[in-house]
């Protein structure tokens, strides 16, 4: 395994243990990075902690944590007191349950790690755990102390090994109702829905991470290259975008049937009915209201792709663009 393990310990299932290591499965280290410089001297600048009132620098040994209880009021905690809150770690990744991977909403997936065997002695028990989970199409919930916190991880088979993904805590995930409570209860019918279904069917594809480019990263690389070559930087012109004023017309254009009348005259027009929870009656809504485009509720995507061994997003780079500009000499 190339690279340095972020964590080493034991994967434990009942009485079966296997030495393992966690290795970051995703990284942003290859992105173009800039230093902050003094424009006048060209020298790098340094950050320093200063007293917000006096403006005087505060030495490291004088820095403490503080929890705000009111305006300019804090409860002070020393580094030793903060350290005492860290849970004890026995370096064991203990499996607590097996489940289907799609039993967990992708909303709770946090950071992925390659979970690899640590040493020759781990080869056989590692293969047993991996193959057993693969044959039963199972994933495992496991807990350990990781980076000062007790964390739950989702362990699942991936290619020749295992992937362990940290899960977000419940308090970190916001309630969907907070975002969707003002979304009207609207049902789309008729030609609108049929056109939408046709467009979706015609756009079916597969996920290929290598096909997606980080356009911002590529643009930064081109800027650095242009600077190194002494070329003049010309800002790109913003192309005007058309303003959609008719949702049904936009759907027809997208489906390639613009200008074609619906069969049966007005019979094919879509109607948007707002269901009233108390009366159960429906009022017809004009399809020409642009707000209809914003009134579809999104459904959560199942995590099935995770269970089938989907590859983590590959680093999508425009070939040769970033390589043309030295990473750390961007100025």
SSE topology:
Blueprint: E1 7-13, E2 16-24, E3 65-70, E4 73-77, H1 79-83, E5 92-99, E6 109-117, H2 123-135, E7 139-146, E8 149-158, E9 161-167, H3 176-180, E10 186-188, H4 190-202, H5 215-229, H6 247-255, E11 272-275, E12 282-285, H7 304-307
Parallel strand pairs: 1-5
Antiparallel strand pairs: 1-2, 2-6, 3-4, 5-7, 6-9, 7-8, 8-9, 10-11, 11-12
Describe the protein in words:
By secondary structure, the protein is α+β, with helices and mostly antiparallel strands. It has 2 domains: 1-37 and 71-178 and 297-331, Beta Barrel (Ku70, Chain: A, Domain 2), CATH 2.40.290; 184-204 and 242-295, no CATH class. It is 19% helix and 24% strand. It is built from 7 helices and 12 strands. The protein has helices spanning 79-83, 123-135, 176-180, 190-202, 215-229, 247-255, 304-307, and strands at 7-13, 16-24, 65-70, 73-77, 92-99, 109-117, 139-146, 149-158, 161-167, 186-188, 272-275, 282-285. The strands form 3 sheets. It has a 7-stranded mixed beta barrel with strand order 1-2-6-9-8-7-5. It has a 3-stranded antiparallel beta sheet with strand order 10-11-12. A two-stranded antiparallel sheet has the order 3-4. β7 (139-146) and β8 (149-158) form a beta hairpin. The radius of gyration is 28 Å and the shape is extended. The two termini are 34 Å apart. Mean pLDDT is 79; it is low at 262-331.
